[in-house]
């Protein structure tokens, strides 16, 4: 697909990413799905290849690369082979957990936690959603109470991406029930902390290889040094970091749509019915023309958002638009792809079928698309 987003350095980086994907991803896709887990060796291999922790400063072992176009390249190459679960895990680490640490960790915390995000030795998770609190994070019940030189955390979280493998978890907890939006804070709970446990590995519709878990905190006592940022600023920190999370989801949707449309075009150009190629039937052809146009127009907006993120000007509203539009388009493209593959589109040996079940969550996590519409709507109604 035509795009002027990338320059020579990005294309050279793409060669490295593609080599990693072909060697360390493609041969293991079926096993990861069967195990419901991506093995740690894959993370370590990605670290050795220089694919993780790109924005980590050199002082902590990273390349200090703030150009998000390199992350875009990684997402493209992973989407090329339909490895959506790996993409989800990498994005959770680099676009979400690492983003919080880079924004709010103090010097001691940076030295302690950042190097592992570069090597692949540290897998992170963020624990926000609860059984009775999804998009409405003000309704969470998990609490953190100060006790001398420690904080004591109690509660439970669910739908936690990388919850099984996570070495550290950023926990969103209530610290003052009377303080409104200033009553929430962020804490880092490390693997092995007494009272911290993982529940079942959740059995999801799609993204089977992406481990997702319930987490439990029963009188989990962590040192004061594991408070991330300032007490009472947790909700504000979430609002600051959500644009990048939603841009990442939008990019994942865009590159998935591009990949699936490519697979579908290849199929309808080869498959014949009633004496001609399937792609030559006008009804199907018009749908493909509409989808190709929509994907190209969508790509132009996504590219713009990436440039704005690099410049530090991406707004929460524009990120919401990117997430809303691209994920809805992804659903349309993949549904058409399954339909145009006929019976084979329903067979899991075809990547379009796997893409179909993997994509449905895109319109839910990172804030449901209904929430995205509300964000955009409120912006439109400003005086």
From TrEMBL:
GO molecular function ontology, one term from the record: acyl-CoA dehydrogenase activity
Domain Acyl-CoA oxidase/dehydrogenase middle: 125-220
Reaction(s) catalysed by this chain's protein: a 2,3-saturated acyl-CoA + A = a 2,3-dehydroacyl-CoA + AH2
Acyl-CoA dehydrogenase/oxidase C-terminal domain mapped to chain residues: 232-380
Stretches assigned to the Acyl-CoA dehydrogenase/oxidase N-terminal domain: 9-121
Oxidoreductase keyword on record: yes
Record's keyword terms, sorted: FAD, Flavoprotein, Oxidoreductase
Keyword match Flavoprotein: yes
Cofactor: FAD
Source species, domain of life: Bacteria
Protein family (similarity comment): Belongs to the acyl-CoA dehydrogenase family.
Protein name: Acyl-CoA dehydrogenase
Organism from which the protein derives: Rhodococcus jostii
């Amino acid at each position: 697909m035509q795009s002027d987003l990338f320059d020579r350095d990005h294309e050279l980086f793409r060669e490295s990413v593609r080599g990693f994907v072909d060697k360390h991803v493609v041969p293991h896709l079926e096993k990861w799905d069967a195990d419901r887990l991506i093995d740690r060796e894959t993370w370590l291999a990605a670290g050795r290849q220089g694919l993780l922790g790109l924005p980590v400063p050199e002082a902590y072992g990273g390349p200090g690369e703030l150009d998000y176009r390199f992350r875009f390249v990684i997402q493209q190459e992973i989407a090329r082979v339909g490895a959506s679960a790996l993409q989800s895990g990498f994005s959770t680490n680099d676009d979400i957990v690492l983003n919080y640490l880079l924004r709010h960790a103090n010097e001691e915390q940076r030295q302690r936690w950042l190097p592992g995000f570069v090597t692949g030795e540290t897998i992170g998770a963020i624990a926000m959603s609860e059984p009775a609190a999804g998009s409405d994070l003000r309704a969470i019940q998990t609490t953190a109470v100060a006790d001398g030189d420690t904080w004591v955390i109690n509660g439970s979280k669910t739908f936690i991406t990388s919850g099984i493998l996570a070495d550290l978890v950023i926990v969103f907890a209530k610290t003052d029930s009377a303080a409104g939006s200033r009553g929430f804070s962020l804490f880092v709970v490390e693997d092995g902390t007494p009272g911290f446990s993982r529940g079942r590995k959740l059995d999801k519709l799609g993204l089977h290889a992406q481990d997702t878990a319930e987490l439990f905190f029963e009188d989990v006592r962590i040192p004061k040094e594991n408070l991330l940022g300032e007490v009472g600023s947790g909700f504000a920190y979430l609002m600051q970091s959500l644009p990048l999370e939603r841009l990442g989801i939008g990019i994942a949707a865009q590159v998935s749509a591009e990949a699936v449309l490519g697979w579908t075009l290849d199929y309808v150009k080869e498959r014949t019915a009633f004496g001609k190629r399937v792609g030559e039937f006008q009804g199907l052809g018009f749908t493909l023309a509409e989808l190709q146009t929509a994907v190209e127009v969508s790509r132009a907006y996504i590219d713009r958002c990436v440039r704005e993120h690099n410049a530090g000007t991406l707004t929460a509203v524009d990120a919401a638009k990117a997430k809303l539009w691209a994920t809805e388009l992804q659903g349309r493209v993949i549904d058409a792809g399954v339909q145009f593959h006929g019976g084979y589109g329903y067979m899991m040996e075809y990547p379009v079928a796997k893409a179909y079940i993997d994509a449905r969550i895109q319109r839910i996590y990172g804030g449901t698309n209904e929430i995205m519409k509300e964000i955009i709507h409120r912006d439109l109604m400003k005086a």
